[in-house]
Structures are given as structure tokens and as C-alpha cells.
Write a structure and sequence with these properties.
With 506 residues, the chain is mainly alpha-helical. It is 65% helix and 9% strand. GO terms for molecular function: single-stranded DNA binding.
């Protein structure tokens, strides 16, 4: 694990859980799987604080445990990849909102905040929120159906549980339990809401559900592919690929490198039934031919010429995306000449310096300077080969080549460094303007309370005037700065996700 990655992990833990939990998490990141007393000794924290920190991290599934040789003691391991996913929570919530609506969005948001919850309790919490925030009445039956929809779509999964009474339990989940929906009783929930029954009386008490991040990442992966084909062709081409991915899941495991063949007839039938893309239906055969003849070969035709099927080559797709990302970075970091040399070395696989100067159509001195600049920045690698028949001073010759995996890992490190800098800058802005931000929050809280009590607009205006014009100007600048930083953070996360997808299929 890299130093930059560790800094990002520590900063996320510090922002969300405080310095004590961050200290325990940072130790586990640095030293790996460790028993409780080692953590206590190395962090110099009271044993009660270490236990409390581990309980919090285990609750949010950021730490796992297993019995060591002495079955009465546990070893703890930090799940650092899940900590990084906390930055993606807004994306997960937004994805569910667009796909299933506000109620499902609230269900996912509540579970993300708590890490896990029973179905009945999360339904009660969402009803309470809807009444309080939106004055909207939603039935328990409709929310039950929303919860089951998320469950059927595999965005939620059952939390593993212990089946033994050992000092260090083993958490397991069977396939039957994973696929069995919870028993949500609307009558019993109503009794609990009216304080006529306790939460313990609910039929699904003790059966907890949590977020299935893997399912969200499938959607994010598919969105990347669809967007790429939409930009390459048009909206109808992107829709064709989206339907192809949708049908892929019926006959292929989600993370397979190559999908099983998907019949073109199925895609045509779906387009005809949906009737939302008439242009795609009218020129369906032309789109099939265009995708089949596409030079990237990411989607290829399989089967006979009369019917035929398409296969998606997911590994090659993300390899191609990685190449394009690296080329774009070279272009932005250096210039178009550097990008030309990089593409030339990529196409030739191995190439001598003299050939670069000849084929890149760049002056020899400049081509040499750019090549060694790319070498210095690790975008090019060099390999020296010995001439077997030569004993003179020129008995070796040099070849330039591109090691994509090494470059991708280097870019990933740069992304972590950038992410750390952005998060640090956001914290700095909050610290510097803490007084004004706190004042704005107090004023907003007062106005909200007075509005709920039916205060007149004149009274509300008087309260708003507590913030002076210069302070409003500062607040606007802070808001603009934070929006820019949040936007950059999301873009960096998209690059990290794309690179991670490449490494998954590597």
C-alpha cells in the first residue's frame, strides 16, 4: 500500500469518525492484521477507546476479524477499499434516485448512514422523514414494495451473522438466507409507530440488511461503456449497447471478461416493445453493421451471418479506456508532440530512438528531449539489448516501450495525491471561515424554526439581516470554491474507478 493512499484513508476516517478511530485505522493500515493488545500498545490509547474504535469500524464493515491460533483472541484487518468507497456515497444515492425514485433513495441513504438496518426499522424511519421533511404520506405497503424492489435488484444484501457461540464468532451467510426476503408486517409496524408494541416484537427483528456495493459498481461500469459508445456514435448507438449489457446479465456472470453471445433478435424485440427509440428501430440493421465494423473491436459479432449474436469484450474495453486516459494525460501534462511520440511508441511496441525521430516528424533534437522527458516521468520505459556480434563501443542498443500497467498504477498514485490535496483544501476553507459558516447555520436554524411556527415574512427578513452584506459575499465565495473542489473530487473519483476497472480485468 502506498503512502498517498494511506493519507487519503486516514483523512476520510478523521473526517467521519474523529482522531481516535483514525489513529486505530492508520495503525491497522500500516501494519495489517493485528490483535487487540498490539493495537493498544502501539497507539498508546486506553483499552476502552481501542475497543470502542474497533466496534465502530466493524459496525461500518471497515474492519473484519477472525480467530488467531488462540481461538479466544481475534485478529483485526482494515478493509481500506471500503473506506475509499465512502467518498462515493453521494453517487450511489443519486443512482438509486434516478432509477427508482425518492423513497428508494431515502432507504439507501438511511442504510448507508447506519451501515445496516432491519427492513421494518428503515421503513419506519423513511415514513418519519417523509412526514417531517415533505409533509408526504406514504403507506407502509408501498415502502415495503420499494424495499423488496431494491432487494430483488440486488442493491441490498443480507448481513452475515454468527451461527456459533465461540469467543470469536465466524460470520456467514447462506445462499438461501441471502435470497429470502424479510417478513415485513405492516400491522406490527403500525403498532410500533403508535407505541403499542416494541421493536423487538417485529417479525424481522435481528435480520439486518446492508448495501451491496458490487451491484452499484456494475451500474457504474456499464454507464462508462454506454457513455463511451454514445460519444463515439450517437444516443441510439449508446442505447443499443445499454440493451446489450442488460441482456448480457441473463446469460453471463457480471464480471466475466467476455460476455456470452447475446442474440441480435432479442435486442430488436426490446427496442420494438419500448418504442422510445424509433430512429434506432428504423435503422437497426445499419447500427448493427456499424458496431460490427467498428475499429475498436470491443463488441464483436458471433454466429452465422443470417441471425448472429454480439459479444462484449469487457477486458479489452477497459484496456482501451486505460490507453485513452493515459494518452489524454500525456497530452494535457506535456503537449501534442509528446502525445504523438507516446502513441508512436505504443503502436510500434518497441522502437529505437532514431526511429522515433524519423517517424514522429519532429526535429531530432526536440524528439530526443521529449522522449527522455517522458522516460523521466515514467510514461516510457527503456530496455537495453546487447548485440551478440559486436565487441566495440556500440555493442548495446536501446529500445523504448510502454508498460501500461506501470503507468496506470503511477496515475492511480497521482489521483490519490490529488484527492488528498483537494480534501485538505476543503478542510482548510472550513477552518478559516468557521465563524461565518457557523453563524450562517445558526441563522438558518432559527429561520427554519420560526417558519415552522408560522412567523411573518417581516420577522424572517429581520433574522436574515443578522448576516451582513460583506459576510454574504464571503459566503458566496466559499460556496463557489467548495462547489469547484467537490466537482474536481468527483472527477478524480471517476478516473480512479476507471483505473480500478482496468486492474480488475487485468
Amino acid at each position: 500500500m502506498s503512502v498517498q493512499y494511506g493519507k487519503v484513508i486516514s483523512l476520510i476516517l478523521l473526517e467521519r469518525f474523529g482522531p481516535v478511530v483514525e489513529k486505530v485505522g492508520a495503525y491497522l493500515f500500516k501494519y495489517g492484521t493485528t490483535p487487540l493488545l498490539y493495537i493498544k500498545k502501539s497507539t498508546n490509547l486506553p483499552l476502552s477507546k481501542v475497543k470502542e474504535s474497533l466496534c465502530i469500524l466493524i459496525k461500518y464493515r471497515l474492519v473484519t476479524f477472525q480467530a488467531n491460533r488462540n481461538e479466544n483472541l481475534a485478529n483485526y484487518t482494515l478493509q481500506h477499499d471500503r473506506i475509499l468507497l465512502m467518498l462515493r456515497y453521494p453517487k450511489y444515492i443519486n443512482l438509486i434516485k434516478k432509477k427508482f425514485g425518492n423513497e428508494c433513495e431515502m432507504i439507501v441513504e438511511e442504510i448507508l448512514q447506519r451501515s445496516y438496518w432491519t427492513a421494518s426499522e428503515v421503513i419506519m424511519k423513511v415514513i418519519e422523514r417523509l412526514k417531517k421533511d415533505h409533509n408526504k404520506v406514504v403507506t407502509i405497503l408501498s415502502l415495503r414494495e420499494k424495499f423488496l424492489t431494491l432487494l430483488r435488484a440486488q442493491y441490498l444484501g443480507r448481513l452475515p451473522y454468527s451461527q456459533d457461540d465461540k469467543p470469536v464468532p465466524t460470520l456467514v451467510i447462506t445462499e438461501i438466507d441471502h435470497n429470502t426476503p424479510p417478513n415485513i408486517d405492516p400491522k406490527q409496524i403500525s403498532l410500533v409507530q403508535s407505541n403499542k408494541a416494541t421493536v423487538e416484537s417485529l417479525p424481522d427483528n435481528g435480520i439486518y440488511w446492508t448495501i451491496n456495493f458490487d451491484r452499484f459498481h456494475q451500474d457504474m461500469r456499464d454507464k462508462l461503456i454506454v457513455n463511451a459508445f454514445t460519444k463515439r456514435f450517437d444516443e441510439n448507438g449508446g442505447e443499443f449497447v445499454r440493451l446489450l449489457l442488460q441482456q448480457m446479465y441473463i446469460r453471463t456472470t457480471p464480471w466475466a471478461e467476455v460476455s456470452n453471445p447475446v442474440p441480435i433478435v432479442e435486442i430488436r424485440d426490446i427496442v420494438r416493445k419500448q418504442a422510445t427509440h424509433q430512429h434506432l428501430l428504423a435503422f437497426f440493421d445499419q447500427y448493427v453493421n456499424v458496431l460490427e465494423q467498428d475499429s475498436t473491436n470491443l463488441i464483436r459479432k458471433a454466429g452465422d451471418a443470417s441471425g448472429g449474436s454480439f459479444q462484449i469484450y469487457l477486458k479489452e474495453t477497459f484496456t482501451q479506456f486505460a490507453w485513452e486516459t493515459v494518452e489524454q494525460i500525456v497530452l494535457e501534462k506535456f503537449d501534442s508532440k509528446a502525445a504523438r511520440i507516446f502513441r508512436l511508441v505504443k503502436s510500434k511496441q518497441y522502437i529505437e530512438p532514431d526511429q522515433i525521430q524519423q517517424l514522429a516528424m519532429i526535429p531530432a533534437k526536440e524528439a530526443k528531449r521529449i522522449s527522455y522527458q517522458l522516460l523521466e516521468e515514467n510514461f516510457l520505459q527503456v530496455q537495453e539489448l546487447k548485440k551478440s556480434s559486436s565487441n566495440g563501443p556500440n555493442k548495446c542498443f536501446t529500445l523504448f516501450y510502454v508498460d501500461l500497467e506501470q503507468i496506470v498504477r503511477m496515475i492511480l498514485e497521482l489521483c490519490y495525491k490529488t484527492l488528498f490535496n483537494i480534501m485538505t483544501r476543503k478542510n482548510h476553507e472550513r477552518f478559516v471561515h468557521k465563524r461565518i459558516i457557523d453563524k450562517k447555520q445558526r441563522v438558518d436554524t432559527i429561520i427554519m424554526g420560526m417558519r415552522a411556527q408560522g412567523a411573518a415574512e417581516e420577522q424572517l427578513a429581520d433574522i436574515e439581516e443578522m448576516i451582513t452584506p460583506p459576510e454574504r459575499e464571503i459566503l458566496q465565495k466559499i460556496e463557489l470554491t467548495m462547489k469547484k473542489l467537490n466537482s474536481v473530487e468527483l472527477e478524480i473519483d471517476e478516473t480512479i474507478f476507471l483505473i480500478q476497472m482496468y486492474l480488475v480485468y487485468k
